[in-house]
Design a protein that fits this description.
Pfam families: DAGK_cat, YegS_C. By secondary structure, the protein is of the alpha+beta class. It has helices at about 15-30, 45-55, 70-75, 95-100, 105-115, 145-155, 155-160, 165-180, 235-245, and strands spanning about 5, 35-40, 60-65, 85-90, 120-125, 130-135, 140, 185-190, 190-200, 205, 210, 225-230, 255-260, 265, 270-275, 280, 290-295. The protein is built from nine helices and 17 strands.
Length: about 300
């Protein structure tokens, strides 16, 4: 058995390289055979995964190292029946948190992978006229997407990532975006929201670098959790932020939590959407359908 490793050395502002170097040194010492495929530019994952799939045998394993963007792009390039393993090495690492994988001990994580049996997990499967694919973390519209867009463009994120403060980068962007983002109208599974502000679908707990947006969500079942926050007075919105961090936000009358196996929705106006931290646009009037897809992981 060989390990085919797809690694993003740039993840987490260089943390991906540290994790990869530590692991490959360990594998060499243990005489565990592997082949390393490293990304060199954005969206290399699709090309590298195609190379891996062309070379590996049924007995070999695929191991992905990187952040939330890396795992999302890699899984989207994998056939539905192909098992994989994952070691988090990014700044937010929400997928790793959702899986319950250690974010600190690379070797212990690999040792668990090496002896692991296949387990079923579920990912969001989204389809609209112009968008389709899998989301390993969240699909967010409105404030969610504006926050991610602002964070990705911010110099602050790079500085804070060096100090292991990815969550703080999201929160600082949130404080700015909350002041300027306008609400939008959306109809989902027959339910109408006229002043939607934050609108996020997920099937595990975490968002924005460890914020427990959907505390009861589990990646091992096919339930989709939808969290909608109405736009209301700005003081109230800011007061709700610490409650979200403490997983106490469902007590607010302005927060709505829906759970279903399938969501169909239409928005009233064009909106930015974020899918695992990548920004896209959803047009007004286009139906979006979100279900789940079963995948296999060794962890």
């Amino acid at each position: 058995m060989n390990y085919y490793i797809l690694a993003n050395p740039h993840a987490g502002h260089g943390h991906g390289k540290q994790v990869t170097d530590e692991l490959t040194s360990y594998l060499t010492h243990k005489k565990i055979t592997f082949r390393l495929f490293e990304t060199h530019q954005p969206f290399d994952e699709n090309r590298l995964m195609a190379d891996i799939l062309a070379q590996k045998t049924a007995a070999d394993r695929i191991l992905i190292i990187g952040g939330d963007g890396t795992i999302s792009l890699s899984v989207n390039a994998l056939p539905e029946n192909q098992a994989f393993s994952y070691i988090p090495a990014g700044s937010g690492n929400d997928f790793g948190r959702g899986l319950g994988i250690s974010l600190k001990d690379t070797i212990a994580t690999f040792d668990n992978i090496h002896k692991a049996q296949p387990k079923e997990i579920f990912m969001l499967n989204y389809v609209s006229e112009n968008l389709s694919g899998l989301a390993t973390n969240n699909f967010g519209i409105g404030l969610d997407a504006a926050m991610v867009d602002a964070t990705n463009k911010s110099l602050t994120k790079g500085v804070l990532n060096k100090f292991k403060s990815g969550q703080l980068a999201y929160l600082l962007s949130a404080l700015h975006v909350v002041l300027i983002k306008k609400p939008f109208g959306v109809t989902v599974n027959g339910v109408r929201f006229d002043k939607a502000f934050l609108f996020t679908m997920t099937n595990h707990s975490f968002f924005g670098g460890g914020i427990p947006l959907a505390p009861d969500a589990k990646i091992t079942d096919s339930d989709i959790h939808l969290i909608e926050l109405d736009r209301f007075n700005i003081v109230g919105v800011f007061a709700l932020i610490p409650k979200i961090i403490q997983a106490k936000h469902f007590a607010s009358k302005h927060v709505h939590h829906l759970v279903d196996k399938k969501f169909e929705l239409v928005i009233d106006s064009d909106q930015l959407v974020q899918i695992d931290g990548e920004i896209h646009k959803l047009k007004a009037g286009q139906k979006l359908t979100v279900t789940t897809q079963k995948r296999t992981i060794l962890k």
